[in-house]
Amino acid sequence: MLETVNRTMRRGAIAPLTAFGLAACFLASSAQPRPAVVPAVVPTPAAVVKPASPSVPRDTGGIKIFRAANRARGMKILVSTEDRWLWLVRGRDTLMSVSVAVGMGEAFSYSGRHWFFDTPRGRRSVLSKVSDPVWTVPDWQYYEEAAGKGLEVVHVVPGKQYDISDGYMKTVEMRDGKVGWVNMNDNFYAPDGEHFIEFAGKIFIPPAASEQRKVHGALGPFALNMGDGYLLHGTNEFDENSIGRAVSHGCVRLDNDEVSRLYSLVPSGTPVYIF
User: Fold this and answer.
1) What tens digit of pLDDT does each residue of 238-250 get?
2) What average pLDDT score do residues 143-161 get?
């Protein structure tokens, strides 16, 4: 599921997380996590055909947003989930017209909890602009990893020890704010830059505020926050070929050059119409 290089340690493994878009995406300063995932194989570039104009949505709800977007005056961002395209418009001038990646439109369930990963349509606005955004791995990202590998999920609680005795390793626990292993000599090892910690058929999830859940570079150089965890953001090296596809967990993803341009042109408060 993730493009990773796993390193093993006896029966344990640590896996660096590289986000695929990372999409409805969870900024480190945000309250609600919603990111995207990296595919096992990097896709070939999508065939991009520039639409002459936004496609009219087929359903009543989409048409309502589409018409509201057409009526709006001043600067506005238009996103067509059908065309997988974004326009930045000011008056009669189209300042940007670019291909984007949007939500995959797929459901995921784990242990009685359910998610639907889509780019929600409606009117939003640019609440804030973030340079060098940091993505925080949400719980469901770990659940996807667990489901894909058949792992048991363990939410690590500070101060608690989790027995993994195998003759060499003793426990998994937190020390100095990091989750790591303790061997039989009481030596503690917390891998740097690793976000998935697996051992003995289990995946250990650090607390939400842990630095081990923060991923730098996953969202590209800039992000425009639309609220509720949804962003307009860039790409990382593993999802550069995702533009033009429905692959994210909800965010709208742009090429890094294009998101840099959008960031420079759009002030906070600019309305965003997604239809």
Assistant:
1) 888 899 999 999 9
2) 95
Q: What is the Cα–Cα distance from 85 to 16, expressed in whole angstroms? A: 31
Cα–Cα dist 264/95, whole Å: 12
Longest dimension (CA), the chain: 71
Check the CA dihedral 241-245-249-251 and report its sign.
Answer: positive
- Give phi and psi for 189, each to the nearest 5: -130, 115
- Report which secondary-structure segment, H or E, holds 173: strand 169-175
Tokens of 224: 């425009």
Identify whether the C-beta of residue 134 lies closer than 8 Å to the C-beta of residue 216.
yes
Distance, CA of 78 to CA of 100 (rounded, Å): 11
Query: What is the spatial distance between Cα 164 and Cα 171, in angstroms, rounded to a whole number?
Result: 5
Return the residue matching tokens 């939003």.
124
Backbone torsions φ then ψ of 96, nearest 5 degrees:
-145, 145
Distance CA 234, CA 196 (A): 23
Q: Is the pTM of this model over 0.85?
A: no
Cβ atoms of 108 and 144 within 8 Å: the answer is: yes
